[in-house]
């Protein structure tokens, strides 16, 4: 899943065999929002939380195939309503308690209780959840009231990672304090919100995923995550040897990183690309012509060329190009400001004295709610702001924290929301757009879209399921429910001493195989 031919792992070249030991010093571009894997949403949060929790399955980054992890094997019922997992014996959580089928049940039950407000991704993966039954100590049967074909892939995600009872019994807010107990290869040793997180190697860990490159314990003794929001400071700290790897390495950072023997490596995120999600009950966005005019008003290639760089791509659909079921809708997203003006003219939005259009006394102006979960967000939106002004649309920036973004999304208190959603399964469209889910568009039912989103859940065979996902992508654009901009890529700067820092299937970092030379 490497982007633009770039490597998907940090340099390892001729450094010899992996050397155990050492502390990895990693610079995050933003603070984790919560230490709980179930409540993790942003990439920077998942980079941390992924290390302390194992999942029932893993997903091969190269093929997308499910692989054993905590579950040695599994069976899926013919109607995709029952999933039975056979757990590995001898697995323990970091508090010494054993992994059992009860652990699986308590984890999933707790995610359902957290709900879409606190665990929007995990609760979406458990849609129509009935119960988990402990058939015996090491056999967990997960049942749904309706077909749920996406669930096997979902069982590989961080959000459905299995946690110890001491964690799942706690209320949502207390699960964000940095003492979560998982069975993963690392454990929390300190957690200072907005500042730093330290993880320590789990002694005796010996039940890694089949995707991992080695067995036994992780190589690193510790991982120290430090929040460094300023790109130049992150790069300087990496180049000077104060950090071993950093998030969100921008194109202009590469020469400085490479001059010190390091490199930038990247991978493209599958899922929903960055874009604007309009609340269709607010202001001028109530007019369906307005979102339709926004689609050709944005020059996506200019966004990539001006703000990002060659490891990024313009969005060409409502799914990123490496997501199962993706279909190329780039013709619908071609830059054509004349077409955008024509749509607005025909809908009665006439230019005013300052160039901004109006209709029946209402100004064609709306805001975009966003946070800096990705370092390039503000610069991209500011360039979109300039592009939209050329067709008579006024875009106002509403920059808030990641926590406030989630709260206001849940309350539908926004005109448009700018974000992306990463997942290596086309079902992520249902998470973002289903009328019976969070429904951030605040839309009414659209039968063709709703039937496609629901139908793919009950379709086990890949080809017909992907056909329904392709229909959903088209319907989302037709209804103006998503204004795509760019596909996200994870661009990681790594020092010369950092080896085998790898991306998992959903483009999040996995530190299990990572090691340091010269320490």
Provide key terms for this protein:
519 residues, alpha+beta, 15 helices, 26% helix, disordered N terminus
Describe it for me?
By secondary structure, the protein is of the alpha+beta class. It contains 15 helices and 27 strands. It has a 7-stranded mixed β-sheet. Helix 8 (289-297) runs antiparallel to helix 10 and helix 14 (447-455) packs antiparallel against helix 15 (462-478). The chain is globular. The two termini are 30 Å apart.
Compile the SSE list and pairings.
Elements: E1 23-28, H1 43-49, E2 57-59, E3 66-68, E4 71-76, E5 82-87, H2 101-118, H3 120-125, E6 129-136, E7 139-144, H4 151-154, H5 165-168, E8 186-192, E9 196-201, E10 222-227, H6 231-239, E11 245-246, H7 254-259, E12 263-268, E13 271-278, H8 289-297, H9 300-308, E14 313-314, H10 337-346, E15 350-351, E16 357-359, E17 362-363, E18 365-370, H11 377-389, E19 394-399, H12 402-410, E20 416-422, H13 428-433, H14 447-455, H15 462-478, E21 483-484, E22 486-487, E23 489-494, E24 498-499, E25 502-503, E26 509-510, E27 515-516
Parallel strand pairs: 1-10, 1-11, 18-19, 18-20
Antiparallel strand pairs: 2-3, 4-5, 5-7, 6-7, 8-9, 9-10, 11-23, 12-23, 13-20, 13-21, 14-22, 15-16, 16-17, 24-27, 25-26
Helix pairs in contact: 8-10, 14-15
């Amino acid at each position: 899943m490497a982007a633009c031919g770039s490597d998907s792992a940090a340099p390892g070249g001729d450094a010899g065999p992996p050397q155990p030991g050492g502390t990895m010093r990693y610079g995050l571009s933003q603070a984790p929002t919560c230490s709980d894997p179930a409540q993790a949403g942003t990439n920077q949060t998942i980079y941390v939380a992924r290390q302390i929790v194992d999942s029932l399955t893993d997903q091969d980054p190269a093929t997308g195939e499910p692989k054993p992890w905590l579950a040695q094997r599994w069976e899926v019922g013919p109607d995709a309503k029952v999933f039975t997992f056979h757990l590995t014996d001898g697995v323990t959580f970091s508090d010494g308690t054993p992994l059992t089928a009860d652990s699986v049940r308590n984890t999933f039950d707790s995610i359902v209780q957290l709900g879409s407000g606190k665990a929007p991704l995990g609760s979406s993966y458990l849609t129509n959840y009935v119960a988990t039954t402990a058939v015996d100590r090491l056999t967990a049967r997960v049942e749904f009231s309706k077909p749920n074909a996406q669930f096997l892939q979902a069982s590989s995600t961080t959000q459905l990672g299995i946690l110890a009872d001491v964690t799942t019994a706690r209320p949502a807010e207390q699960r964000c304090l940095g003492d979560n107990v998982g069975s993963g290869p690392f454990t929390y040793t300190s957690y200072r919100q907005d500042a730093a997180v330290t993880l320590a190697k789990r002694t005796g860990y010996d039940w890694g995923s089949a995707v991992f490159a080695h067995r036994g314990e992780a190589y690193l003794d510790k991982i120290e995550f430090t929040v460094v929001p300023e790109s130049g400071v992150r790069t300087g700290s990496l180049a000077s040897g104060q950090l071993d790897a950093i998030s969100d390495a921008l194109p202009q950072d590469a020469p400085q990183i490479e001059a010190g023997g390091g490199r930038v490596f990247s991978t493209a995120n599958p899922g929903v690309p960055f874009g604007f999600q309009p609340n269709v009950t607010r202001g001028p966005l109530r007019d369906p012509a307005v979102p339709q005019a926004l689609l050709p008003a944005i020059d996506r290639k200019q966004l990539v060329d001006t703000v990002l760089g060659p490891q990024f791509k313009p969005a060409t659909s409502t799914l990123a190009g490496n997501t199962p079921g993706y279909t190329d809708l780039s013709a619908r997203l071609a830059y054509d400001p004349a077409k955008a003006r024509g749509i607005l003219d025909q809908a009665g939005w006439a230019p005013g004295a300052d160039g901004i259009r109006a209709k029946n006394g209402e100004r064609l102006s709306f805001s975009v709610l966003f946070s800096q979960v990705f370092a390039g967000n503000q610069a991209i939106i500011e360039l979109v702001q300039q592009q939209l002004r050329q067709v008579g649309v006024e875009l106002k920036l509403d920059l808030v924290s990641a926590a406030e973004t989630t709260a206001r999304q849940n309350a539908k208190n926004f005109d448009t929301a700018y974000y992306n959603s990463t997942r290596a399964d086309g079902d992520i469209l249902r998470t973002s757009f289903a009328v019976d889910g969070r429904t951030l568009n605040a839309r009414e039912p659209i039968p063709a879209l709703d039937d496609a989103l629901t139908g793919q859940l009950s379709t086990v065979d890949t080809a017909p399921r992907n056909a329904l996902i392709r229909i959903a992508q088209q319907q989302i654009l037709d209804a103006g429910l998503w204004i795509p901009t760019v596909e996200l890529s994870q661009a990681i700067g790594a020092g010369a001493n950092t080896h085998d820092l790898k991306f998992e299937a959903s483009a999040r970092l996995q530190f299990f195989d990572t090691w340091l030379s010269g320490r």
